[in-house]
Every structure is written in C-alpha cells, then in structure tokens.
Amino acid sequence: MNMSKQDECNNPIPTVDTIIHNDSQVLFIKRVKDPFEGKMVFPGGFIKKGETAEEAAKREVKEETSLDIELDHILGVYSDPARDPRGHIMSTVFIGNISPNSHSKEPIAGDGAAAIKWVSIEDIEQEDFGFDHKKIMKDYKEWKQSKQTSWSSRSKSKINE
Amino acid sequence: MNMSKQDECNNPIPTVDTIIHNDSQVLFIKRVKDPFEGKMVFPGGFIKKGETAEEAAKREVKEETSLDIELDHILGVYSDPARDPRGHIMSTVFIGNISPNSHSKEPIAGDGAAAIKWVSIEDIEQEDFGFDHKKIMKDYKEWKQSKQTSWSSRSKSKINE
Fold first, then answer.
1. N or C: which end of chain B has fewer CB within 10 A?
2. How far apart are CA A128 and CA A137, in angstroms?
3. 3-state secondary structure of B59
4. Across chain B, what does the average pLDDT equal?
5. Angstrom distances, CA of residue B82 to CA of A48, A101, A112, B43, B89
6. In B, what residues contact A, Cβ < 8 A?
C-alpha cells in the first residue's frame, strides 16, 4: 500500500481479517514485517478499490496461506483509531473455514507470512499477537459460545461505551 | 465529503448505516440531495478519520434525526463496488434502537433529511429506496426471523458467490 496516498484520505482505510477455524483451533500467520514483525496475526489485509470485502478476505488468505476458504460469519468490525500504528485502519473480521474444494489442503506460509500456526482457543494467553488480534480472539471465543456477532454477545453497557 | 480527494484513495471509503427499529417498523429518512434525492434511506454517512464506526453511526443518526440511539447488532458489511454511483463506498450496517435516555423522544428531520418515515417491514415493496437499502431491508427482515447476521442466515452457496 502507498502510505503517503493513504494519508491524503479523509476516512479510515478498510481492511479484512479472517478467523479460519476448525473445532478447537484458529489459523494464525507470523508477520514478516513491521508493524508487529514476528507477531501472530489472522490472515488479512487491505481491501482494494473494486473488490468486495469477501473477495479481499479470500484473496489475502490465498496469498498468505495458499488456502481456498469459505466465509460463514462476520464476527465484528474493529475501528478503534489506535488499533494500528500506521494510521486509522478499520477491519471487518470474518469467520470461515477451509473449503472442501481447496487446491491446497494444508496451509503453506506465503506472502507476508514467516510461518503458519494453529492456535487453540484455550491457549490465547500463551501467544504473542499483533494489532488488536488478542482482543478479537477473545471476542471469537465468546462468540463461539454464544454463536452471535461479538456485538450481540456483549452487554448493553459495553456496546454503548 | 471532498470527492476529488476521495478519488485519490486506493481503497473503498467506509460508511455506516443504522437500522433503527421497534417491534415492526424501521426508521427511514428521505434524502435531500443526489444521489438518490427523494428516496428513502437509512440514516448514515461517512466514517471520519479518528472516530469509530459506532461513533459515526450515532453521530449521523443524531444529525439526521435528532435521536440518541443504542447499537445492538451488526447486520452485515455491504461492499459491492456498484452499490453507490459516487465510487466504491462500503457500509457497515448496524441495528439499533432509540435510547431510553434520548434527549429527543421522537425523530425530527435534520441534516440531509427532507422527511422522516417509519416503514413497516411488511411494506418493503411499496417504498422507493435509495442505494442498496431495499436489499438491506430484505436482509434485515430475514435476520429478524433468524436473529443472525445476514451472513449467517444466507445459504452456503450464496455466501460463496
């Protein structure tokens, strides 16, 4: 992304992140560059002009992990201006899984990924996450129990903070 | 919004729309300007750099209807590049209701709103909606029956279009 151009925009820049899960684990990549070099993050990236959020999510996952995925839910939209040190970048977080028709059956670290790791939702505290992805993992854990969006599963007081 | 500046951006521009509902009706405003002048739309608008999506939703509803609202759910994220004739503009659609503490108890048409109208979810076909708000109303109707995000309530085949 051209960051100088981004700074000219009057609005937050939209990205996507995808929680690729199986029964008890979530797929993370280890970032190869700053910000958060070496930290664990969900596969994701910037939405390009002309593509939908869903297309961007699938494209980024393919580039970073070689997997073809299906998207099933939206966990939430994360837009705190302080969540990304590069500027105001907001993310739509999808929940998906590996497509039965995926060309690659196992993830392979690709663009922007130094490594791939399946993380158990019970091991959140043991991992070192980038951006606000630890918070998102906690929301996901709550969602998995409630089967609703992170919004729905929050108390009224939290929603209206 | 400065449209010439927007054109310089490499990514879709993020907006919010809010479905303010009671048991059987949804609040619409009649647009005062193009695109879709005179059409019925949800209150909403552009997210400014430095504010969250939730803050933008509440601010826009306040400006356009004078109401203070509470946000409860995210219906979906609508990002079809063709949904807005001004360019690639994507919207996070919240579901909310009038806050019990709202200063104004009834909506009053404000900035960008020629009129206010409560529309019954049974009357979707009788109304003339702007943007993709008819589609969103249909997704809302489906969500209201299933109590899930529009994503969750769609069939697998539709999600992976």
1. C
2. 12
3. helix
4. 88
5. 14, 29, 30, 20, 9
6. 1-2, 5-6, 8-14, 46-54, 70-74, 76-77, 79-81, 87-88, 90, 92, 94, 147-149, 151-152, 156, 159-160
